[in-house]
Amino acid sequence: MAFNLLLLPGDGIGPEVMGEVKKLVDWMNKTGMVKFETETDLVGGAAFDAHKVAVSEDAMKKALSADAVLFGAVGGPKWDNVPYDARPEAGLLRLRKDLGLFANLRPAICYPALADASSLKRDLVEGLDIVIVRELTGGVYFGEPKEIVTLENGEKRAVDTQVYTTHEIERIGRVAFELARKRNNKVTSSEKRNVMKSGVLWNQVISALHKREYPDVTLEHQLADALGMQLVRYPKQFDVIVTDNLFGDMLSDVAAMLTGSLGMLPSASLGAEDPSTGKRKALYEPVHGSAPDIAGRGLANPIAMFGSFAMALRYSFGLGKEADLVEKAISMALDQGLRTKDIAAPGQNAVSTTEMGDTIIKTVQKLAG
Ligand code: IPM
Ligand code: MN
145 falls in which pLDDT band (50, 70, 90)? Predict the structure, then answer.
């Protein structure tokens, strides 16, 4: 049976980095190593240009029926003035919400070869291996009311709503604890219980869940501001970090820089397991954005996109061995000294998106051979 894979390259550097991964998908298909049926559709600004929406109903239908979605990136200055509901980011947010992708896994691994590309000192980041588990379908991203209203005096008032229920916190907590058990058995939960009611509840629910179901896992709580500080002070203290949608957004960008570049971080967004099929809806995307400033110039780093594909192989298709191959190939390409511009040391020669992509693919082929 073939796996159904939907490719949504999106905007900016999205199509370039997706193009590299597509070559790998096609090769894997050709060898019979895997059997993917791939479809491609538009999302973000590209969808707006074609259909005046950030994601079409047709693309949503494909996403809902796919075994996994591979997503590039969305957004860019070209769409700064489109209606709010049709802005490129709305396409991604709708996919997350409608597919129920509440669990966003953002691993940050610092390859030894890249420790000098980080803005932190080598000994702080070398060998770093942490995962941020970000809640992805709740919190201030989706809470209602969410509006700008005009007051009687003519002044405007903007509202976003931070809201979490027990079950939303519990299910993301479970993902974090389960993951920690397969790693170094430690979870750091982060909120702002000193200022926010949602933080108070978050803390209570995570603590109770820990006591009830995961007493074997070490649990720590850190306020989100302090965690931001600790992440750049001594990042290796962490194993799994679990936090809400907004804090997770911010902290994962910080974590990205620990690894050398935003161009290195993959992510997996997973839904709940369907009790009848055992399958989860899933979307895989690099953490970096569309980087319009470098789009179309062959400068983009495709590693986060390859890493996202590796996560898809592992989490959606049960192809752990093939995922290992891709991850190994990434690390070998780096060991060989290959660098795109974002991770090149000053004065070091930088390769193009395609050169990096081709090397990774060739290495996978060799390793598989
Ligand atoms: C991310 C991005 C998105 C987010 C944007 C593009 C809506 O920054 O995935 O981290 O804020 O979640
Ligand atoms: Mn972000």
Answer: very high
Q: Please work out whether the CB of residue 89 comes within 6 Å of at least one atom of ligand 1.
A: yes
CA of 49 to the centre of ligand 1 (A): 21
Q: Is position 358 annotated as part of the catalytic site? A: no
Of all ligands present, the nearest one to the C-alpha of 141 is 1
- Residue 78 designated active-site: no
Reported as a single tens digit per residue, the pLDDT across 119-137 is: 999 999 999 999 999 999 9
Report the distance separating Cα 282 and Cα 304, nearest Å. Answer: 17
* Rounded distance from Cα 366 to ligand 1 centre (Å): 35
User: Which class for 318: exposed (0-12), middle (13-18), buried (19 or more C-beta within 10 A)?
Assistant: exposed
Any idea how long the chain is?
369
CATH: 1.10.10.10, 3.40.50.720, 3.40.50.2000, 3.40.718.10. Which one for 1-101+265-369? 3.40.718.10
CA neighbours within 13 Å on the CB side: how many for 198? Answer: 20
Structure tokens at 367: 């390793």
Across all residues in the chain, what is the average pLDDT? 97
Report pLDDT for 1.
Answer: 75
Ligand nearest to the CA of 89: 1
pLDDT range class, residue 112, cuts 50, 70, 90: confident
Q: Whose CA is nearest to atom 12 of ligand 1?
A: 249
Q: Which of 49, 225, 274, 293 is catalytic?
A: 225
Write the CB contacts of 90 (distance below 8 Å, at least 6 apart in sequence).
54, 55, 84
Q: Mean pLDDT, to the nearest integer, of 41-58?
A: 98
Question: Does residue 320 contact residue 285 with C-beta atoms inside 8 Å?
Answer: no
The two three-digit tokens of residue 99, written as one number:
């597919």
Q: Is the per-residue pLDDT at 167 higher than 90?
A: yes
pTM higher than 0.70 for the full model? yes
Q: What is the pLDDT of residues 204-254, one digit of tens each?
A: 999 999 999 999 999 999 999 999 999 999 999 999 999 999 999 999 999
Q: How many angstroms separate the CA atoms of 261 and 117, rounded?
A: 7
What residue segments make up the domains of the chain, in order of their start?
1-101+265-369, 129-258
User: What residues pair up with 223 in beta bridges, in sequence order?
Assistant: 191
Domain 129-258 class in CATH: alpha beta
